[in-house]
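hiii, so i know i said id send this last week but things got crazy w the move. better late than never?? heres the sequnce for the chain we talked about at the cafe, plus the structure i predicted for it. fair warning i was half asleep when i ran it
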Amino acid sequence: GKSWIYIMSAKSASGQGGSVKLKIVNLAPRNLKGKKVVPQKTSIGNFTEFSFVVSDDKGIYQYAKQEPTDLEPKINSAPDYIIKFPIKIGTSWDDVYKTSFLNQEIELPLQISIVDVSEDVYVSVGSFSKCIHVKEIGTINKDMGTAFGKAQVTVELHSWYAPGVGFVRAVIKEKSNHLSLGSGV
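okay and structure toks below
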């Protein structure tokens, strides 16, 4: 029953952008294919999806996802870790990211690490102490076709998690040096 409301704001390099409200609600734990999961309902306007979160001895991860067109949750082929244990500076792991602010979805590898475990974070609803700061970085050179050459796409994400609360803030930067992809946010 725990719920969070976030205001997501985006601004392109040209200064255009806007805000949208995102709501996440924890639902009652349940078993899904032999795993005890906590379903999380995420709503943005009329769009709703579900994530199924698990904790094990390696960390906290998304085990499955269910989008509006899915009849049943789809189990991830590998754990999609949100936080890896031990929670200490230097803990790191790899993941894959799909851009959402460029003109084309680009998939690229990410290197993720815990860069701080005691940051103070200030957001519109207040301040949070002793937050975990997770940094994600990725770069890829994408072939855009013979006539268009290569594009360099870089992504940098910063996320903060407060003790006893969870996710409280994120900053995402997607950049491209190619006109057909746009400049990102």
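btw The two ends are 33 Å apart (CA to CA). thought thatd interest u
miss u guys!!
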